[in-house]
Write a structure and sequence with these properties.
By secondary structure, the chain is α/β, with parallel strands linked by helices. Helices cover about 30% and strands about 20% of the residues. The chain is elongated.
């Protein structure tokens, strides 16, 4: 449930409400908005009994949250969450673009990709050091060496780094090197991993599962939020349907739906959704028009030589053209890139 405090409520009154809730066994999440302070109480509401929370000084109203996700709900936090990493904001008025190769392959490849995507206007470099592949014989990534190359690239080009974590065992290492920790589609319901990243101090990029409903996706985010990490970025990357022409079916309706249901920022990955580079530009532009807070786009200096997902990767030249189009659409809806 949510306890909405009066705009005149004092810090002492807020503390008194939280103390009463904690005594009843509730976990507390405090959200101080521009216009109101909200206390999220997570737990069994039958335990309240006659606690009389609504009668405590400073309380405006008590609202039950009927949806299974509590902390991710816009009822819990009316204003959209803005995640700040240095001078980069995700969820604000800027469309943040994360771009780079699917997998780290070499220092030369990564440096060239970083230089080109930065020139085009991206602020965040994507690159996989650990690669979950359908086949055990496919390239699995460079592991720690890849993370080291990503860190070296950040130092040289001043880009933030987003990279995927595969399991709890490798999480400490990924957290050491990454600015944003990515949970891939195959791990969206790896609940042990979700709990672990919920305890780390880095923002988490949570991709939607292959066949996940929006509610299941938000419940996965709830696992992370419930462990104390408020910095979750949702990523729509297409869902599996009967259509086989594209790799997946990009669900752009998820963007306004998430904006309605949740305060969490949402970005779109058109590369993995479509699987074909020639389809990526139009869907990247469409995602921004739909209200996405950012994009995740694969860019490779030589896609034909890529060890992973070359067919969906843009060349730096094509990416530069996409960034121009994205900028035009962003400005048309009152945002910037």
């Amino acid at each position: 449930m949510v306890i909405v405090m009066s705009h005149k409520a004092t810090d002492e009154q807020i503390e008194a409400v939280m103390k009463r809730l904690k005594e009843k066994g509730f976990r507390i999440n405090l959200s101080r908005g521009v216009e109101r302070t909200v206390i999220g109480a997570i737990g069994d509401e039958t335990m309240l009994g006659d606690a009389g929370i609504e009668l405590l000084p400073g309380v405006d109203k008590v609202i039950p949250i009927l949806r299974p996700y509590k902390l991710a709900s816009r009822i819990m936090k009316e204003e959209g969450t803005v995640i700040r990493i240095g001078d980069v904001e995700i969820g604000g008025g800027t469309v943040q673009v994360m771009a780079g190769p699917c997998a780290v392959e070499s220092k030369e490849q990564l440096f060239e990709a970083a230089e080109k995507v930065k020139q085009a206007g991206a602020r965040i470099l994507r690159g996989g050091a650990y690669k979950p592949r359908t086949s055990p014989y496919s390239f699995q990534g460079m592991a720690e060496k890849g993370l080291q190359l990503l860190a070296e690239t950040r130092e040289k080009y001043g880009l933030l780094i987003v990279t995927e974590v595969m399991d709890p065992r490798s999480l400490p290492l990924v957290v050491e090197y990454a600015d944003i920790v990515q949970i891939g589609t195959r791990n969206m319901q790896n609940f042990w991993l979700l709990r672990e990243v919920g305890q780390c101090n880095k923002p988490v990029l949570l991709k939607r599962g292959l066949s996940a409903t929006i509610e299941e996706w938000l419940m996965a985010a709830e696992y992370i939020l419930s462990e104390g990490n408020p910095n979750v970025i949702l990523c729509e990357r297409g869902v599996r349907t009967f259509e086989s022409y594209t790799r997946n079916t990009l669900d752009l309706s998820a963007v306004p739906v998430i904006k309605h249901l949740s305060h969490l920022p949402i970005i779109v990955d058109p590369s993995h959704a479509l699987g074909k580079y020639e389809l990526v530009p139009s869907m990247a532009v469409a995602a921004v028009a739909a209200g996405a807070d950012g994009l995740l786009i694969e860019v490779h200096p030589n896609p034909q030589e890529a060890l992973c997902d070359g067919a969906q990767s843009l060349t730096p030249k094509k990416f530069g053209k996409v960034m121009v189009q994205v900028g035009e659409v962003a400005r048309a809806i009152g945002k910037k890139v």
